[in-house]
Write a structure and sequence with these properties.
The protein has a domain of 113 residues: 5'-nuclease (Rossmann fold), CATH 3.40.50. 54% of the residues lie in helices and 10% in strands.
Length: 166
Amino acid sequence: MSIIVDSGPILSFARANRLELLHQVIGDLTIPDAIYEEIVIRGAGKPGSTEVQGASWIRHLPVRDRAFVDQLPPKLHLGEREAIALAKEQGAALLVDEREARREALHQGVTVMGSLRVLREAKTRGIIPRVRPTLDELIAAGMYISEPLYEAFLRQLDEAEDIQSR
């Protein structure tokens, strides 16, 4: 299945110097033009910009149905709206962490996944031995996760002994 990615996960993994982990777990990624513009053009010189621009495994595509993009809630930023639209057009899943964007994607019939699923897959496949160090790197780099979700996620992955005050 093809995966469309919003800017949040790309930027979180890039800031933590873990962008390659997305590639290892998911394979090739597709981003809409608005996400490319946000990360590469307007984000020039920031983490993720050079990596996204030079990654042969990240491609960007235009959204064909601009009217659909315009009909999505304006509280979502353009990149989120384009990512939802492109995922719908491509029959692809959407990798997105922001709650409102996830809710809208599900409302539109788009399968969603988040960064935590990427980490779970990475551990399951043996790409990383433990989730907590990588999760903590993502959080330190700016990814938000509530304390209850953090703790529940580590418990699910049998890393409960690692739970301590962050």
